[in-house]
Design goal:
Layout lengths: L1 H12 L4 H7 L6 H4 L7 H21 L2 H19 L5 H21 L1
Helix pairs in contact: 1-4, 1-6, 2-4, 4-5, 5-6
């Protein structure tokens, strides 16, 4: 299960994220930096959409909507922290992997 969660994370964080979400989820990237006519608060929608893709992957792998919701919240805050430069890329990825370990532990020990 851990391996499947890591695969889901890799898919959701790289090919399924796409350039638009990867850039627009950061509130510090202004609309003119990316181009096009987009609202200034689009980062909330993009970060939420990206986190929902991750939540879906966790839900599919674990069969738990609750863990999917937990993933949505955790992924949102972990990525927000990275965009704020409170964490770096390695810390971001490490926190995501720790969350997957916690899900597996919760399933098998609770």
């Amino acid at each position: 299960m851990l391996f499947a969660l890591i695969i889901g994370h890799a898919l959701a964080d790289y090919p399924l994220q796409g350039k638009f979400l990867a850039i627009r989820k950061n509130r510090h990237i202004k609309p003119l930096d990316y181009g096009g006519d987009v609202p200034s608060n689009i980062w909330v929608y993009c970060l939420s959409a990206h986190s929902l893709v991750h939540a879906g992957a966790v839900w599919v792998v674990t069969g738990s909507a609750l863990l999917g919701f937990v993933e949505f919240v955790l992924h949102w805050w972990i990525d927000f922290a990275k965009c704020e430069k409170w964490t770096n890329f390695q810390q971001d990825q490490g926190l995501h992997l720790l969350s997957k370990l916690a899900y597996v532990a919760a399933i098998f020990w609770l």
